[in-house]
Amino acid sequence: MKTNDIVYGVHAVTEALLANTGNKLYLQEDLRGKNVEKVK
Fold first, then answer.
1. Is there a domain that residue 5 lies in?
2. Among 13, 19, 21, 33, which is disulfide-ready with 1 (CB 3.0 to 4.6 Å)?
3. What are 8-32's pLDDT values in tens digits?
4. Structural domain boundaries, residue 33
């Protein structure tokens, strides 16, 4: 992944985290859901 790529969506972000790529993560404050809890 390039340093300026933006990944969005719960599934895409989960995959990026598992691959240990990226350096910033922004979450919506009141975001809820089963898959969102995996990211938090």
1. no
2. 21
3. 888 888 888 889 888 888 888 887 8
4. 10-39
